[in-house]
Structure formats: structure tokens, C-alpha cells
Design a protein that fits this description.
- With 116 residues, the protein is of the alpha+beta class.
- The chain has six helices and three strands, in the order ααβααββαα.
- The chain has helices spanning 3-10, 13-22, 29-33, 40-52, 71-102, 105-108; strands at residues 27-28, 56-61, 64-69.
- A hairpin with a 2-residue loop joins strand 2 and strand 3 (64-69).
- It is elongated, with a radius of gyration of 24 Å.
- The termini are far apart.
Length: 116
């Protein structure tokens, strides 16, 4: 899987809107284009980018072109993000531990500071 293509395709808000609509089920190209504030040729270009990234497939059904979401490609991107998130979280936890060790005792427990 080419994550660069997937994330590049998802970088555009119009393409994310298309993906979001396809999560509910297959739609025709015309149905996808209808609510978008861009021309049908522009929608077609966005669909081409999503198709090259493997996020959608297009097929013909009579006179209509049906667009389907390829959730497997989204799953691959999700797996990568989750793995990266776990690594980043571990690094932040390690940093918290280091900062806690270096902090003066009074700064760690301000409630322990008492004035007599």
C-alpha cells in the first residue's frame, strides 16, 4: 500500500467529503457531485485521485457510474496512524517521567509546602 497516495488523497477536504458520503454506501458519480459546490469535471478529477490511491472503485451499471468505497485502504492508513500514535504516546509518557524526576520535590507536591 502506498500511504503517500492515500494521505495525499485524504489531504483535500472535497475528497474527504466524498469518502464520508461513501461510508453510507455506494453512490453514482452524479449523486456524489450534486451537493458539492464544484463542477462535475472537478468532481471527476477528485474521483480519479481517490481511485489512483485505491480508496474507491468505479463501475458501470447501465447508464450510471457507481462509486464504491474501498475500506481496506482506509484500514491500512488507520493501522499506520494507530501505530504512530502509540509510539508518540510512549515518547510523551517517557518525557513526563523524565520531567517528574528532574522537578524539585516542592514543585511535585505543592500541597506539601506549608508556612509556619
Amino acid at each position: 500500500m502506498n500511504l503517500d497516495l492515500v494521505f495525499g488523497a485524504l489531504a483535500d477536504p472535497t475528497r474527504r467529503a466524498i469518502i464520508e458520503r461513501l461510508r453510507a454506501g455506494d453512490l453514482s458519480s452524479g449523486d456524489l457531485a450534486e451537493p458539492l459546490p464544484i463542477s462535475r469535471p472537478a468532481v471527476s478529477q477528485h474521483l480519479k485521485v481517490l481511485e489512483v490511491a485505491g480508496l474507491i472503485t468505479r463501475s458501470k451499471s447501465a447508464q450510471r457510474r457507481i462509486v464504491s468505497l474501498n475500506a481496506d485502504k482506509l484500514s491500512g492508513a488507520t493501522e499506520w496512524l494507530l501505530a504512530a500514535h502509540e509510539e508518540w504516546q510512549q515518547r510523551f509518557d517517557n518525557l513526563d517521567d523524565i520531567l517528574a524526576e528532574d522537578a524539585p520535590k516542592s514543585a511535585r507536591h505543592p500541597e506539601d509546602q506549608r508556612t509556619n
